[in-house]
Amino acid sequence: MDYPWLHAPAAEVAETARTLLGWELAAGGVRVRLTEVEAYAGTGEDPASHAHRGPTPRTTVMFGPAGHAYTYFVFGMHWCLNIVCGRDGEAAAVLVRAGEVVDGLPTARARRGDVADRDLARGPARLAVALGVTAAANGTCVLDGSGPLLLSPPTRPVARAEVSAGPRVGVAAAHDVPWRFWITGDPTVSPYRRHVPRRRT
DNA sequence: GCCTGGATTCCG
DNA sequence: GGAATCCAGGCT
């Protein structure tokens, strides 16, 4: 499958992110319903984007076709998962920040440990663990089943009225743009944390 | 090459 | 509030 709105121009990536709420991502026997996402625009458009200063080896897949996964390793221990958006050559992406595990609960728990159901995929790195996402998923297509991840339409659609918006989590730059979207009141949405500069040593 | 700091999480 | 499996990217 392919979805035309994934290919919307990078300037409209916020709308693309909002659209992804309620969609489901499956991997390794676990299925997650997306409850929280963040939009990142491309080169020169968004100082918070990894692609802000142009392509680099790490961000190559962000410049590729929409519908592919961009995964990256951060803080020496965590993986985060993005879905590449925009037209070819544009580097827009949507960071998948949290979800509700709707299938494969035992597998998710085996990966995440003995935590509350709502915490299984509550936060981008936790969600990556729950889905078993690592470097292996980077650059793979999430639309056609050729990779470990598969995106599918909502089982229960999310109405616009159910969606809240606010500043992105942990991002210092562009704190004024409300490019984080979540399903209002959903218990699996991660708590907001303002960016805190790391203390100098 | 070296150095900085990170789209986070967990623990104290 | 700080430390923790690293390492990308900017700068010298």
From TrEMBL:
- Asked if the record carries the keyword DNA damage, the reply is yes
- Alphabetically list the UniProt keywords: DNA damage, DNA repair, Glycosidase, Hydrolase
Molecular function via GO: hydrolase activity, acting on glycosyl bonds
InterPro entries recorded for this chain?
Answer: Formyl_transferase-like_C_sf (IPR011034), MPG (IPR003180), MPG_sf (IPR036995)
A Pfam match: Pur_DNA_glyco
UniProt KW Cell inner membrane keyword: no
| Family per similarity comment | Belongs to the DNA glycosylase MPG family.
Protein name per its UniProtKB record: Putative 3-methyladenine DNA glycosylase
